[in-house]
Amino acid sequence: MFKIWAKIITGEKIVKQLIYEREDKFVYSLFFNYVTDICEGLDIATPIILKTHIFNYAKFRTVKFLPRDFAETPDFDKLIIDNISV
């Protein structure tokens, strides 16, 4: 089981957040699927995921998506995804 806390930040405020939970084990090859599910839950476009995003999540347990990571310009400053599993 794993949990991911996703938050949309505008300025320095969290304007929307979501806790994403799955009962199965976290698999890095499915990271795009997890982010897609999170973005659907937050009702935003899915960012373009690069290898560095996956490496940052694996190493630091967090990843930050900026407006340049989206094909469409979002109306927020950043999307932060944190691993909150114990």
Entry keywords:
86 residues, alpha+beta, four-stranded antiparallel beta sheet
Summarize it.
The chain is of the alpha+beta class and 86 residues long. The protein has helices at 31-42, 51-60; strands at residues 2-10, 13-22, 62-65, 78-83.
Explain how this protein is built.
- The protein is α+β, with helices and mostly antiparallel strands and 86 residues long.
- It is 26% helix and 34% strand.
- It has helices at residues 31-42, 51-60, and strands at residues 2-10, 13-22, 62-65, 78-83.
- Strands 2-1-4-3 form a 4-stranded antiparallel β-sheet.
- A hairpin with a 2-residue loop joins strand 1 and strand 2 (13-22).
- The longest helix has 12 residues, at 31-42.
- The N and C termini lie close together (10 Å).
**Total number of beta strands:** 4
Please outline the major beta sheet.
4 strands, antiparallel
Approximately how much beta-strand content do the residues carry? 25-35%
Number of helices: 2
Query: How confident overall, as mean pLDDT?
Result: 96
Order of helices and strands: EEHHEE
Strand order of the largest sheet: 2-1-4-3
Enumerate the spans where pLDDT stays under 50 for 5 or more consecutive residues. Answer: none
Computed over alpha carbons, the radius of gyration is: 12 Å
- Tell me the overall shape: globular
Helical residue percent?
25-40%
What's the N-to-C terminus distance? 10 Å
Structural category is alpha+beta
